[in-house]
Amino acid sequence: MVDTAGKAVALSLGPGQRADIAKAAPLLDEAAPKAFIADKPYDAESLIEKLRKRQIAPVIPSRKKRLEMWMTTIKAGIITETTRSELETLEARKRQQTEVLS
User: Fold this and answer.
1) Closest to 28 in 3D by CA, of 7, 6, 9
2) For all residues of the chain together, what is the average pLDDT?
3) What confidence tens digit (pLDDT) does each residue in 38-63 have?
4) Other C-beta atoms within 10 Å of 71: how many?
5) 3-class DSSP assignment, residue 38
6) Measuring CA to CA, which residue among 41, 45, 43, 47 is closest to residue 18?
7) How far is the CA of 16 from the CAs of 3, 12, 25, 26, in angstroms?
């Protein structure tokens, strides 16, 4: 994990065949970032929830599959309270990403 200047603030090494996301949550315990910028493989609900609980802005693009699922749900007219809440969360994340990057 690096800061805005690219300086390492936390480091963890693991086996090459293990997904990097497995080390993300423990690394967060070693740092106090305002935002967490990562690529699509880090778009996991468990990690995003941990970020929210610690009031860290997730700046992670949504995976195509997640977006396609929402679009299918909308087109089918299957909007439940849970779906509506999750859509609002996705929209809020997109706004946060825009704010953090500007």
Assistant:
1) 9
2) 76
3) 888 888 888 888 888 888 888 888 77
4) 10
5) coil
6) 41
7) 24, 12, 18, 17
CA angle, residues 101, 92, 5, in degrees to nearest 5: 25
Other CB atoms within a 10 A radius of the CB of residue 100 amount to: 14
- Of 87, 82, 49, 85, the C-alpha closest to 67 is 87
Residue 35, beta-bridge partner list:
57
Distance CA 26, CA 46 (A): 13
**Which tokens belong to 102?**
């500007």
Q: Is the dihedral of CA 24, 25, 28, 33 positive or negative?
A: positive
Per-residue pLDDT, 72: 66
CB atoms closer than 10 angstroms to residue 40:
12
